[in-house]
Amino acid sequence: MSIVPTGNAPGDSWRGCRNPMAAARAQAYGGPREAVLNAAGFAAAQAAVMRWPDYAATPLVTLPGLAARLGLAAIHYKDEGVRFGLKSFKALGGAYAVYRLLARTVAERTGQPPPDVDELLSGRWRDITAGLTVTCATDGNHGRSVAWGARLFGCRCVIYIHATVSEGRRDAIAHYGAEVVRVAGNYDDSVRHADAQARANGWTVVSDTTYEGYRDIPIDVMHGYGVLSQEVIAQLGHEPPTHVLVQAGVGAFAASVAAAFWIAWGPRRPRFVVVEPTRADCHLQSALAGHPVAVTGDLDTVMAGLACGEVSPAAWEIVSAAADAFVAIDDAHALAAVCAFANPCAGDPAIVSGETGATGLAALLAASEHPALHELLALDADSRVLLLGSEGDTDPALYRQITGRSADEVRR
Ligand SMILES: Cc1ncc(COP(=O)(O)O)c(C=O)c1O
User: Fold this and answer.
1) CATH class of the domain at 90-214
2) In this structure, what DSSP letter does residue 318 have?
């Protein structure tokens, strides 16, 4: 295994390694990975999500000024900050899984085929759906999506947040009518708590992470995320990027993007770099160990959506084969990236990206300072890099604190 020789000491601004488990580039997508995520699942999710009120593809923004500054051929930024008014790609996953769960339950109770999106939205099955409760643990964005989906499709919702989730993120979930409960400990503790409460009360967990005996709903979540990748594939046309930098918490997002690009582009798929915080680097540590390992502690990082200590096992089946490299980045680079997007290079538009949304740029900025990281990412003047702006200002107060301006002021 090749661990990059510098940047691995405690307190360093980054760590990284090449992926010793990476599948050969020529290897087709398939086998056990297909049992997790597949083309049919992505297509079904896209067909459903396109029926949701106000669906629109989010923009793919080109940043020639930033690319020139970093010595790259091109940078594309997929801006999920405008997704369904929820300000993150997470809107796609949790809400899609809620839809699938309710449709399945209606089918079981009536003996009829599962209702489609329009039928469920019409309220025709409200007497069944209103009696159901969905729940999950969240560090913010996933819970917001589940709460929004519950309101849209008509069921009850209880969301658990852990100790360091900000009040702003709490309020954003409550805004969609969910009951929000704060519990002691870190994200992984809140996952266990939600599971115990669901068992005790007969509720259904709609989690973005898989665990022993629980896979189908998180797989729906990952297929829902795939809408973003299908949009990118259409927006880029026939030329795949050379690199994609994907931020990872439990890895469901990374798995979804990796599977969709592998299916669409085969051996022409971009170099896949998984980026996470140095304080919550469970993917990097799992890659180094050769199997999933848990990272403990408070996992405290400004990249709130990535404060996870354990990979999602089903997602890991895909990410462990698809990733070319794993990189962990410190908070300082994430904050610098948020500010770099807000204060664009000449010729580029200003972009409102939250701390978790800016993680890919954080890695690029660190790579421009550290030759070993530059080499690990295999960047050069021909690189066309796709950054996944997974969120906008999901915590507006924090965003203002970081940039000194509101999202509206930055966009002006
Ligand atoms: C904005 C944002 N980006 C990325 C992620 C990472 O997704 P995953 O936990 O599936 O790796 C999250 C997770 O909450 C998130 O909120």
Assistant:
1) alpha beta
2) H
- In this predicted model, what pLDDT tens digit does every residue of 315-338 receive, in sequence order? 999 999 999 999 999 999 999 999
Active site residue 139: yes
Predicted pLDDT of residue 2: 41
CB of 170 within 8 A of CB of 306? no
Nearest to 390 by CA among 175, 83, 179: 83
Whole-prediction pTM value?
A: 0.96
Strands 156-161 and 60-62: unpaired
Cα distances (Å, whole numbers) of residue 202 to 37, 134, 167, 285: 28, 10, 28, 36
Query: C-alpha dihedral over 400, 402, 403, 409, to 10 degrees?
Result: -20
The verdict on the CB of residue 257 being under 6 Å from ligand 1 is: no
* Nearest atom (ligand 1) to Cα of 253: 10
Sorted by where each begins, the domain ranges of the chain are 14-88+218-411, 90-214
- Spatial strand order in the sheet of 156-161: 179-182, 156-161, 133-138, 204-205
Using DSSP's 3-state secondary structure scheme, residue 60 falls into strand
Is 90 marked active-site? yes
| Architecture (CATH level 2) of domain 14-88+218-411 | 3-Layer(aba) Sandwich (3.40)
How close is the Cα of 306 to the center of ligand 1, in Å? 6
**166-177, pLDDT tens digit by residue?**
898 899 999 999
Nearest residue (by CA) to ligand 1, atom 15, is 305
Q: What's the CA-to-centroid distance between 107 and ligand 1, angstroms?
A: 31
The residue behind tokens 């708590």 is: 193
Please state, as a whole number, how many other Cβ atoms lie within 10 Å of the Cβ of residue 371: 10
The single residue of 78, 79, 87, 139 carrying the catalytic annotation is 139
What gap in Å lies between CA 139 and CA 160, rounded to an integer? 9
Q: Which of 142, 276, 390 to mutate to test the pocket of ligand 1 (most atoms within 8 A of CB)?
A: 390
Query: What CA–CA distance (Å, rounded) separates 114 from 120?
Result: 9
Residue 240 near residue 265, CB atoms below 8 Å? yes
